[in-house]
Amino acid sequence: MKSFAIAAGALAAAAFAWHAAPSFAETARRVPAPTVDLTAPAGATTATAVFAGGCFWGVQGVFQRVEGVSNALSGYAGGEARTARYNEVGSGRTGHAEAVRISYDPRKVSYGKLLQIYFSVAHDPTELNRQGPDTGPQYRSTVFAENAEQAHIANAYIAQLNQAKTFGKPLATTVEVSKPFYAAEDYHQDYLTLHPNQPYIAINDLPKIDDLKKLFPESYKATPSLVRAAKAS
Fold first, then answer.
1. Has 55 been annotated as catalytic?
2. For a disulfide at 124, which of 4, 26, 37, 80, Cβ 3.0-4.6 Å?
3. pLDDT tens digit string along 4-60?
4. Catalytic residues per the record (predicted)?
5. Of 25, 28, 50, 55, which is the active-site residue?
6. d(CA 73, CA 145)
7. 3 SS3 class
């Protein structure tokens, strides 16, 4: 569905169908914060986290607007370097998921806070190998932990939310450790900001930005940290 959305020749014809279709935007909720979190190392000013939760356009757009995040890069994780290309990942056979690598200041926002936003507004963690109109393992809900400590925090949080029956059903989110991340093609970067009127974005992803602002006002920033701005600096 997302490949269709970016086909320039078909976009105009698809617009009416998208506007007429029901919204696939996930229902957001502010879930409880994790009871365990990472402690920022003394003197650390930057850290990274990698999350997958469906189409990376919306996930990137959310985290670009979180206070303390300096960059959020769309890409692929879970597979090999040779298949980290959009057309191949879209087959669902590469092992990759569309993912976002988040660079953040641990003095301003914690790993646990990012996880809380991830589970609350960035996607629906109960959907297995799909998000909204997009289906396949490339759209799976996965925390790509960079080390054992991140994996411990993520697994503990998933167990906490499941035990509390926060979503009314078990989370489908998995945790994969030490999987390389590969940046996506340039045309995918900052997609939500650059194409706010594109029907897919308007229907599925812009509501997430509204949810972030409403549910996490203390973490929301109006000016996103864009990839192209980081490259220019």
1. yes
2. 26
3. 555 543 333 333 333 334 445 568 999 999 999 998 888 899 999 999 999 999 999
4. 55
5. 55
6. 16
7. helix
